[in-house]
Fold MET7A protein.
Amino acid sequence: SVLLLRAGLALLAWPIYLLSFLGIWEPFCRKVFFPFVLEKICGIHDKKSKKHKQELFRNLPDFRGPSGELRLLEIGTGSGSNFQFYPPGCKVTCTDINPNFQEGLSRNMKKNQHLHYEQFLVAAGEDLRQVPSGSVDAVVCTLVLCSVHSVSSTLREVLRVLRPGGAFYFLEHVAAEHSSWTYFWQQVCYPTWKLVFAGCCLTRELWKNLEEAKFSELKIQHISVAMPWMPVEPHIVGYGVK
């Protein structure tokens, strides 16, 4: 039944599959479709997850470095929807593998002038070589680990760039319980969803990757963030300390 429904969904999305076969969809998706759609989705997601984010980032000031400054690196910044939750004076380095979020990013920077923006780096989460080892107090990653090529490599980079005692903050959608209808529909939607949404994987059990990473302290909470007509309700939220 999963395969039949996948085939039906693929038929509905056949123009995208055709454009992908012709090599047109990926550049169009990266430059136009994904930045536009992601900003709209993030707007809805931010409203649904606002209380969770406020609670998540509440203790960010506790991880200020010895100088009293908080140096924060965000992986997959996108249009900067997390800026509103960062404490005043925080020094932010933005990274994203896709450089086509500049319009939304500039708009959110102007809205959040309580922060100091250091630089914007075009970089994948798995390769942050432009960031020196042990140079940041906190790393933030929200709705990004679903689409990186390697979760374990990304987490290794997170631990490398964090100073000892620094923290990694995350909020990510994850696979549902295998016996649930949500997981059934995640499996049905998986191939087409991944194509349409720039590599986003619906069925990753990211809490396992986090538990396998070498954090000295790890706090993970499983929550639900209901998104209309989208199979991404199960989430995890928390932070790990290096």
Observations:
- The longest strand covers residues 162-173.
- The first helix runs from residue 2 to 12.
- The chain has a mean pLDDT of 94.
